[in-house]
Design a protein that fits this description.
Elements: H1 6-35, E1 37-39, E2 46-48, H2 51-58, H3 61-90, H4 95-110, H5 113-123, H6 135-160, H7 163-171, H8 176-204, H9 208-213, H10 221-230, H11 234-264
Antiparallel strand pairs: 1-2
Helix pairs in contact: 1-11, 2-11, 3-6, 3-8, 4-6, 5-6, 6-8, 7-8, 8-11, 10-11
């Protein structure tokens, strides 16, 4: 640690708890408590019940959760493919061209996501690229919004990658395709898994662009959370939010295990 004094470390730990608990942990704990509550007459929710989770098990929430997971998986894999491809291509470009490519990938992140949703709604509202009212336009919107994070993660990993491995393989007569698939990408695997986990988490929570694009038969869970809280069903919305959070964490734990094995290799 940068701080070697024991009293100073204790002071930093206390400061961390003071800042972390009210800002990050306490709101999440309140949401979890609200998901098991039937009333809220005091400072905290009260009246323990499992009714909200029983409604989720027998309602449309499971289908919405599956829709969110499928959308996030498709978007994160598409973003990882496009971001990795672009990062590998940008490595061979000049500085000015690379900066232009960086700006193009960061543009969807620099503007509000509702602007991205509106632009896709207008762009794909006429043949031959008529995607309005289809699940594909929702997946496309999520892909556009998260590709920048995959691109930046892979680009950062490439700058830290020792070129000696690639040069040694090429010196031994390996073809460029073989070097890419058997040398370069395996070395990038921990960063690739981290990028896909980040893209998945961001896609699972995306709401603004999704609200403008989703068709009735492709309802992601964040939209259902918003709809529940908008009509005043706070406790049901809290249960949906906890379900969304738990599903996201489970997938991220699985991705972290893959990343750990990749780092060990």
């Amino acid at each position: 640690m940068l701080v070697h004094s024991r009293p100073a470390r204790r002071a930093l730990h206390v400061l961390f708890l003071v800042l972390f608990l009210p800002v990050f942990a306490l709101p999440l704990l309140v949401i979890v408590a609200a998901s098991f509550a039937s009333s809220w007459s005091g400072t905290l929710p009260s009246g323990a019940t499992l009714k909200h989770y029983q409604d989720i098990a027998h309602g449309e929430a499971l289908h919405a959760l599956l829709t969110s997971v499928l959308t996030a998986l498709a978007a994160s894999l598409a973003a990882l493919t496009a971001g990795t491809w672009a990062a590998l291509a940008a490595e061979k470009l000049g500085r000015r061209t690379r900066r232009l490519l960086d700006a193009l990938f960061l543009l969807p992140v620099a503007v509000p996501s509702v602007v991205v949703g509106l632009s896709l709604l207008v762009a794909f509202s006429r043949p031959p690229f008529l995607l309005n009212g289809t699940p594909q336009i929702v997946i496309l919107a999520h892909t556009v919004l998260v590709t920048a994070f995959a691109y930046q993660s892979v680009t950062a990993a490439l700058t830290r990658l020792d070129p000696a491995y690639e040069q040694s393989a090429a010196g031994l007569g390996a073809r460029p395709a073989y070097v890419l698939w058997r040398v370069k990408l395996p070395l990038l695997l921990p960063s690739l898994t981290a990028a896909v986990g980040l893209c998945f988490a961001l896609s699972m929570g995306e709401l603004s662009a999704t609200m403008m694009l989703y068709p009735p038969d492709w309802l992601p869970l964040p939209v259902q959370v918003f709809a529940a809280t908008d009509r005043g069903a706070l406790f049901a919305g809290a249960a949906l939010a906890v379900t969304l959070m738990a599903a996201t964490l489970l997938v991220l734990l699985g991705v972290s295990r893959i990343r750990t094995k990749a780092s060990y290799r």
